[in-house]
Amino acid sequence: MREKPPKIKEVRRHEIVLRTWEDEHLFDSDSHYRYFADDVPTLTSFQRFLTRTFYNPVVPLCAEWQRVGDFDAKELIDAVKKGLDHDDDIIQQWFDGSDVLKLLRKAKNWGDTLLAVEAIGGGHEDTPEVAAYVKRVLPNAG
User: Fold this and answer.
1) How confident is the model at residue 142 (pLDDT cuts 50, 70, 90)?
2) pLDDT digits over 88-129, tens only?
């Protein structure tokens, strides 16, 4: 990894209720990282209730990425599958779920994986190399 991944320094209380950082993954060509948080604030029932209404203040939370293993394409695909289960057409904005997974599964190396991820985010519309990857993997798309 060229740059150190960002730390979480603060979150809204509702993010503590949902523990959103626990579902985040970061991959590079060699490693798999996950956020780990120290000293997660404990919220009272009333504070939890307020986060769903009008009062959802920012509170400190220190979370850092920690390496949890080597890069494994299966773990990346599993994380995307989990995201697809709760997707509100963010991941599937350009491709349906089965095509998203096919783009990732057909990646033969890290470079292909990056092309697949860029395509899933719409990069195939303006980057010829990404468009070529999509055409190779999904010849009947678009």
Assistant:
1) low
2) 888 999 999 999 999 999 999 999 999 999 999 999 999 999
N- to C-terminal Cα separation, the chain: 34
- Do 73 and 28 form a contact (C-beta atoms < 8 A)? no
CA distance 49 to 91: 30
Please give the Cα distance from 118 to 73 (Å, whole number).
Answer: 16
Dihedral-angle region of residue 32 (phi above 0 means left; psi in -120 to 50 means alpha; beta otherwise): beta
Domain borders along the chain are 8-70, 73-137
Q: Give buried/exposed letters for 37-76 (b at 16+ CB in 10 A, else e).
A: beeeeebeeebeebbeeeeeeeeebebbbeeeeeeebeeb
As beta bridge partners, residue 63 has 8, 37
Q: Which two tokens stand for residue 41?
A: 């604030």
